[in-house]
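Quick one - first record:
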Amino acid sequence: MESEQDAKKLVSRCMLVKACYELWGDGCSSEEMHNNIRQQPQSLYKPHLASHKSFRVTVEGFNKSLRSSDKLAKIESLSYLPFDGPVNLTNPDTRLDLIEYYGLSNVDVPDQPYRVFLGRLLGRGCRELIAQYSLKQRSYIGSTSMDAQLAFIMCNMAQLRPGDLVLDPFVGTGQFSRLVVFSPFWNKLAQAYPCIVICSILVSAAHYGAHILGSDIDFLTLHARTKPTRVKQKERSAHESILSNLSQYGLQGRYLDVAVVDCARTSWRRAPVLDAIITDRQ
């Protein structure tokens, strides 16, 4: 990447990436990693360890839990680096992560790691959105509601941006979804919009700043009058609706409307007004 800012922007949108690092050194053993770090030019790390820069060093084992005493010893092994700034465990200017990789198998985990890395943390992915937008917290859900993680992945595939106009043509159950394959209108629309993806994700699209439209043939689903899918819930509450889901996250201003539409006899205008079509059917 051309700059550190580009890396931060990219990882901040990633759902499947945990974190992004600037690699300072690595090796098949701790000794090899330290030798690799010593060979790096001081211009790589000295600006980030200056007296006006606070720092923090953490040690993580991938597929293995490490004892606190072992972590402390590994941190002290980095004493040759010019740490001139103060320690800040809460919000440091520079965070270094020493990561030891012990493989993927939980059986017969080796005593020594297969590989060791030291890197400066640049940014983290947006995996906290998985819990924030969990279906367990959602006001209105159905039996076919899309998992939050998959929803955000599909939004990234569509490359949604603030101000985009997005349509989910099967916002409810999508029971007539396969008719889209045989509809000449939708085939032409697919050619006009190459970013057609598969996911029922109006809430996730609104999170990224898109204005959202929805349609479905099922009137009861659009108006939250179907049978509840939550355990021990016998009736739908009066406030349950697609709009209530958006209001729950302060996104109601990006909701345009939903309509009862049979996609076999679609009433949508044949004009390039949409930026993306996102649905959970194919």
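second record:
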Amino acid sequence: MLISLQRAGIGFFLAAALGIPAGFLLGGVFRTLEKMLLPFLRLLEKINPFALFPVFILIFGIGEGSKVSLIYWVSQWPIIFNTIMGTRGIDPLLIKTGRTMGASNIELFFKVILPAAMPGIFNGLKLGAQLSFIMVISAEMLGSSSGMGWLTKNAQETYKITQLFGATMFIAVLGLIINKIFRLIEARLLVWRESTFEEH
């Protein structure tokens, strides 16, 4: 169902758009702040997202906002934490070498920092995408009148075995397709990362 993909996509892209910059800032610029906030962020990550769903409904209503918020909440954590780890794991010698060669801050970021942190970032994006797909099904089961989650729940409640089997197979195949897409993107990114370092 397109509506399920739309919900998952919006939640995931919001998580990526906010999580990656947050991870870069905490992992690279504000490391002292990161050490202070990390235990608190880990605590927030452990909160059961379904316990927060009524809160999201209260804030955003029963419509799309609450579902997207639930997806965003769960998807953001692997993106933030993996970006932090990827940024922290950059060899300081790479940055020092880049500065020695006269690279500006922008060049340093795009030619050294970003390529070096990319494996960690991409791991976070893969996990975030997987979680967004899982959460959209769960959110639609909890409170929706459309989408694959609702279709699956409706088939269970009305004992429509054929519909239930079809929905389950569709979800499984879609999950495999998403995983394949990320594998292809990862392969291309690794080539880009290697070529960037070679140019540098």
